[in-house]
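does this look right to u?? fe (ii) ion version
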Amino acid sequence: MKIIGINYLSESSVCLLVNGNIINAISEERINRTKNWYGLPRKTIDFILKKNNLKAKNIDYFVTSGLSSITNDMPNKYAISKKIEKIENSKLKKKIKLKQINFLNKRSEHENDVINKRTKKLINKLKNEFGEIVVYDHHLSHAASACYSSNFKDCICLTIDGWGDNSSAKIFTFSKGKLKEISSTPTIDSLGYFYGSITKLLGFKPHQHEGKVLGLAAYGDYKKAKNDIYPMISYDNKKKKFNGNYEKGLYQATFNNRNLKYLTKKYSKKDIAATTQYTLEKVVLNCVKNLSKKKINLALAGGVFANVKLNQKIKDLKNIKDIFVFPNMGDGGLAVGCAQLCYYDKIKKIPEKIQNVYLGSKFNDNEVLKSIRKFKLQYSSLKNIEKKMAYLLSKGKVIAHFNDKMEFGPRALGNRSILCSANDPKINVTLNKKLKRTEFMPFAPIILKDYAKDYLKISNKDLETYKYMTLTCFCKKKMNKTSPAAVY
Ligand SMILES: [Fe+2]
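got this back:
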């Protein structure tokens, strides 16, 4: 059975699933070279069909996410009216009350527009081109990507992002291939928007540069802005939902939250970043701690789980056996999740676990040579490229490594990676300058599996978890000594 999963949201992407195996998963940005591109990933669909000698008529099912545009289900209307009631009964000044209520009413209109006009139009466009389209819920697709790709037979799944269909977070149980929804947090209580609005406030691009806030947080003091930022959002254990505390006057589910402006006058950027990271961790950990008293396996997906520090803290909780974060945790991963859901629904077989994320484009030697000649580059052909790389790294050289299939997801995992020796801490400054990255952005180490335990405080069973660079861990003294450039 051949299935094509399509994501048209930010980081548009396509997945080809054959008999439950992911054959290709590629984001359109890697083909059209526009970062975070969104819309129908037409070029990637053609690329994948061509590379696999397929035509659209050979595909059994075309699948996507965005179910609420078909069901016309708008539960957020109820959530918004409850929220407005709370604001009206609060002690806020009349002017701020009005501001918060106006925001919620506008937000409701905006969501209606996106779901009932923009999403509907895109799904109809797909129908016109490919015939029948199978459509799943956004967060269910996130959850499927994490659960079906993990090693877990049973687990709990948590998805958190900015906004998808009618939710910003969902909790599921996963057992024998089936996902069951436990709770859904409305879009107006979004943790993704909470973190993204601070990203924008600090002068970075929201929905793209959240990692910079995390990087900056390491230099700040979370206690400084705690009184202002911490009350913005919380977790309600009774309802099993996150809660944007509008009645406290600051929180809004938008990147462009003008209520926050005074924070930059009162606190330094690094302290705001530190308090934001602290708040995110506290709120999500509160949720995970309360998922179960027994030890559980936890599958995670959604853009918020790009936060490697948060993921480490989740993994270290007492009630957690193990975690699995889908390597393309953002909306790019939806193409995989919805294709896997369709496979399970149609033949009741559990899709195959993900083996690696080298699921993208691959070029043979002739194609590489053609490009080298086109751009008149100097080259030499080597039999043992690894030996030469080791020699160059030992001499302090920086290597751009292009090998085999491209990675799917935000992390470069060796096939399209920039490599250098980690024994000189100054290399970070040089590299960040060359790559035009912010000066405090970290680099991740790459270590042979057999030696990982000598350098990192991890156990044997953790080795699989760290494979996809989805969480941080603590270092041993040996790492500090030999590889200071990769210790933060
Ligand atoms: Fe999402």
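The pocket of fe (ii) ion is lined by residues 138, 142, 161, 164, 302-303, 331 (CB under 6 Å). idk if thats expected tbh
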